[in-house]
């Protein structure tokens, strides 16, 4: 907190961290409601010299919420964390009922289903579906959504993150840094009936079924400096094809530049023939991303553009037609290449992952 504010809140902060007001106990709702626990976390974050944006991001609340309770606490101390009396008819939903809905949403599942719906939670709690919707919205709960994640178990995770991110922020002089990977088994799909074009008031429509007309694999090297891409298509996806692609890269990059390749840990990248390549071509240097961490390879982001803009909604009667469209798309991209800006440092990435691990650990997983 700015100025002399830290000293002003020292005594209440000690209470929040004392056995009577321990932050972990408050967060686990043993003596207080979730809303009060959240406000306590905001105040404790302020006492730890975090700014409003950091606290909002960590607690997944709006920065205005942080500002509000920070100001209330400075002005009214602990009493400021309690809701003020409001005019009009008192709420028919008690704080205990809100807490029960939040706890059940987070810690239980309905019988015969994997997640709660507003209807099933309303039936369990005796509250209306609109009330359940408001409670979930206020607490940022979305039972109908599920994300994905994977934590790398690579024993060299830290070293690899530092190495790869270091190349992004400080690429070597007189060298080109290429993010390399394969988009394998791209299917040439054609719809069983013609696609109906978009019309005013009606989106493009296509049949739900399709015909498979073969597959191809795209080998790509994304230049982090200027965003250009070296691409090559092969019908198979083996170390043999990857070696051919290395030869293509060798011919495409000026001979006076070193070549730093960022690759993942796929088996085709680590065969004896590929490992021997840098020994015979000393200007080549291979850097590997951590296992299970494709997000750190910039070419994966470029593959996303290719998929969204050309492949996903494309219709191809043959592999040749698919490959022709991919080559055309790459040529168009290279006419107006867009490099990506990598903002986070290795230290910020590692700290972010550490916070995430602490959060899921505290949740009991």
List the SSEs and their pairings.
Elements: H1 5-8, H2 10-17, H3 23-27, H4 34-47, H5 52-59, H6 63-76, H7 95-107, H8 118-125, H9 129-138, H10 157-169, E1 175-191, E2 210-223, E3 229-234, H11 239-252, E4 258-263, H12 272-280, E5 284-288, H13 298-311, H14 319-335, H15 346-362
Parallel strand pairs: 1-4, 4-5
Antiparallel strand pairs: 1-2, 2-3
Helix pairs in contact: 4-5, 4-6, 5-6, 8-9, 10-15
Q: Could you tell me how far the N terminus lies from the C terminus, measured between alpha carbons in angstroms? A: 33 Å
Contiguous uncertain segments of 5+ residues: 1-10, 19-31
What quaternary form is this?
A: single chain
Question: How much of the residues is beta strand, in percent?
Answer: 5-15%
CATH A-level architecture of the largest domain: 2-Layer Sandwich
Main sheet record: 5 strands, mixed
List keywords for this structure.
alpha/beta; 3 domains; Nucleotidyltransferase, domain 5; 46% helix; globular; 365 residues; 13% strand; single chain; 5 strands
Protein architecture, described:
With 365 residues, the protein is of the alpha/beta class. It contains 15 helices and five strands. It folds into three domains: 5-81, no CATH class; 95-138; 160-348, Nucleotidyltransferase, domain 5 (2-Layer Sandwich). A five-stranded mixed sheet has the order 3-2-1-4-5. A hairpin with a 5-residue loop joins strand 2 and strand 3 (229-234). Helix 4 (34-47) packs antiparallel against helix 5. The longest helix has 17 residues, at 319-335. The chain is globular, with a radius of gyration of 27 Å. Residues 1-10 and 19-31 have low confidence and may be disordered.
């Amino acid at each position: 907190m700015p100025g002399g504010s830290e000293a002003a809140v020292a005594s209440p902060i000690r209470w929040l961290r004392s056995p009577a007001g321990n932050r972990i106990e408050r967060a686990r709702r043993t003596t207080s409601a979730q809303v009060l626990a959240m406000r306590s976390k905001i105040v404790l974050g302020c006492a730890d010299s975090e700014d409003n944006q950091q606290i909002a991001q960590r607690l997944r609340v709006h920065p205005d919420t942080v500002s509000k309770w920070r100001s209330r606490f400075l002005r009214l101390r602990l009493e400021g964390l309690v809701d003020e009396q409001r005019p009009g008819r008192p709420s028919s939903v008690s704080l205990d009922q809100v807490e029960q809905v939040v706890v059940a949403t987070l810690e239980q599942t309905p019988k015969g289903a994997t997640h709660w719906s507003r209807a099933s939670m309303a039936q369990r709690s005796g509250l209306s579906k609109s009330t359940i919707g408001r409670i979930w919205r206020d607490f940022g709960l979305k039972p109908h959504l599920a994300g994905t994640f994977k934590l790398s178990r690579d024993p060299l995770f830290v070293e690899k993150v530092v190495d790869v991110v270091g190349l992004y922020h400080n690429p070597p002089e007189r060298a080109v840094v290429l993010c390399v990977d394969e988009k394998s088994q791209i299917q040439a799909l054609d719809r069983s009936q013609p696609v109906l074009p978009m019309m005013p008031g009606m989106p493009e429509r296509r049949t739900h079924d399709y015909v498979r007309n073969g597959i191809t694999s795209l080998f790509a090297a994304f230049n982090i400096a200027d965003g250009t891409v070296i691409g090559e298509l092969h019908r198979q996806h083996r170390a043999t094809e990857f070696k051919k692609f290395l030869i293509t890269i060798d011919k495409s990059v000026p001979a006076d530049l070193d070549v730093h390749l960022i690759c993942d840990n796929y088996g085709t990248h680590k065969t004896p023939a590929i490992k021997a390549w840098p020994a015979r071509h000393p200007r080549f240097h291979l850097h590997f991303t951590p296992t299970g961490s494709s997000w750190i390879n910039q070419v994966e982001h470029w593959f996303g553009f290719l998929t969204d803009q050309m492949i996903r909604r494309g219709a191809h009667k043959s592999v040749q037609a698919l490959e022709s469209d991919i080559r055309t798309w790459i040529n168009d991209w290279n006419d107006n290449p867009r490099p990506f800006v990598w903002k986070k440092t290795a230290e910020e990435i590692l700290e972010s992952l550490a916070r995430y691990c602490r959060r899921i650990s505290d949740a009991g997983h």
